[in-house]
Amino acid sequence: MNADAHRGRGDDYLAINLANWNSRVPHHVAGYGLDKYRSDPAWLSEVVRFDLPRLGDIRNLDAVHLQCHIGSDTLSLARLGARSVTGLDFSQPALDAAAQLAADTGADIRWVCSDVYRALDVLEPASFDLVYTGVGALCWLPSVRQWAEVVAALLRSGGQLFIREGHPVLWSLCDPRDDELVGIEFPYFEIAGGTPFVEEQTYVDHEEPLESPAIISFNHGLSEIFNALWDAGLTITAFEEHMSVPWNPLGAAFIEVPDVPGEYQLREKPERLAATYTLRARKR
After folding, report:
1. What's the pTM value of the predicted model, to 2 decimals?
2. Residues above pLDDT 70, as percent of the chain
């Protein structure tokens, strides 16, 4: 990743990031292997398959997937037996692709276009048993406290949050040196305005550069996330850190994990880095 020399403005992050995610959609539709979902009615995304031992039984739950993108994880939740599934994302092109995938596979999923912070304008408060958020979501949001308040408001009493996310240490790393060593370069803690980057390639293989390569990213330290959830009225019931992440974030410094398709870890001594974490919390 190439960082600009100055921080992004807080009032333009949403438009910049929306343009970027809109430009990713055709590449992700081509690169996500969506035909597997069409040909195999039991197929689950690699992300959700990784989550299964920690996610628990979601049968007969009303679930909402925040920042659902093109819906492969959302469809996977539906296939796990949730009573109802809603996918929310701020990119209408992404939701169009998600709706097409659901239609092709016969899944009954509600798709809602909204910024996460405005979710309560389009979704009924206290109407979900499960809020699910996948990898690479919180880094697009400037305030983790505001996110936690939205999560709490969407959940029924006793409802649960499940999230797997990139570890804030991972988000703070620079590109590897020629000897593949990596170091801390970017903020670990939440900062006003975020950090701008220009990334012409997304995390699936494609030849043409993104039409809108600029992004503004926001990191959130673990204490900031924990305190935001506690203060919003949730009790953290499980937390686990993982050495792997479901894409290659640092080129030659990472390799695919043996016997775990789609997961990547440091090539040398992967125990040095907590790359992702999973967290469960229950609304008090």
Report:
1. 0.94
2. 96
